[in-house]
Amino acid sequence: MKSFTKFFALFAVAVLFSSASLMAQPYNLKSDTKKEKALVPPKTVDFRAQLGSTNTALDKVGEIIDEGRQTKNVKTLLSAAMILFLEENTQEKKAQITGMELLKEASEIAEGQKNSQSLYACAYVWGSIWVNDAASADKYNKLAASFEGKGAGLRGPGAKECSVQVENHFDQRIYVYIDDVYKGYVEPGYWAKYTNIGLGTTKLYAETEDYWVEAENDYFYSFWEYELDLKSYKDENPDFTWKLQ
Fold first, then answer.
1. Domain boundaries, the chain
2. Where are the beta strands (DSSP E) in the chain?
């Protein structure tokens, strides 16, 4: 039990980035702003009531899920999934957000991040007594093995470093993800610059927090996405700017 607890321990993610007044860069990337209905906000779910449980650990599950989703932290989402699996099996009930939903979500993130440790963690849960899906466990174990020892490379001729600057021209804080890895947030009117972002096609994704739309009586969030292949950029202009507005 001790090693299990350590394996799924939550840890704080320290995000450091520099910001200043908005500046122009050589290449500008544009993405249309999209809006979608938000998932059930985890902090609004009363897990104890919905599962009929007296386990006080459930009082923090909403916060754990929210943190895991915001930072795309696979182990944080798996921690919440394991708590829910235990309660679902004990109480024979399910809440609005289930352990299986979180496991699938965590597995998708781990695959997108190409993170072998996270994929092994997902495989462990798929093969656990609560899920007992040997085929999925085998799938994620094989994926994990295929990504072992493969770190992100540098881009361009002579393996030069490439950077992407993200500018927030929107009216809300924006959370930034590169290749499904959480990089930090950018406040309105500021920018953040990210370097050494990998080799080949890179996924840029950013989103706001959930916000309430009175006219539609529901929660929504805005997001932006872009795919970028910088394998042959010009040496004299290696930097790119992604303007979100």
1. 41-147, 157-244
2. 27-30, 34-37, 163-168, 174-178, 181-186, 191-195, 201-208, 211-213, 218-229, 239-244
In 3D space, the residue among 80, 39, 77, 34 whose CA is nearest the CA of residue 59 turns out to be: 80
DSSP state of 40: P
Helix (H, G, I), strand (E, B) or coil at 53: coil
- The pLDDT value recorded for residue 86 is 94
Share of the chain above pLDDT 70, in %: 77
Question: What are the tens digits of pLDDT across the range 200-233?
Answer: 677 889 999 888 888 888 888 899 998 876 554 4
Predicted confidence at residue 101, as pLDDT, reads 96
For the segment 13-22, the average pLDDT, to the nearest whole number, is 33
What would you measure as the largest C-alpha separation in the chain, in angstroms? Answer: 63
DSSP 222-237: EEEEEEEE-TT--TT-
Mapping DSSP onto H, E and C, the string for 155-196 reads CCHHHCCCEEEEEECCCCCEEEEECCEEEEEECCCCEEEEEC
Give the C-alpha separation, 135 to 141, whole Å. Answer: 10
Predicted confidence at residue 202, as pLDDT, reads 77
Helix%, strand%, coil% for the chain, nearest 5: 40, 25, 40
- The fold for domain 157-244 equals Immunoglobulin-like (2.60.40)
Neighbour count for residue 116 (Cβ, 10 Å): 18
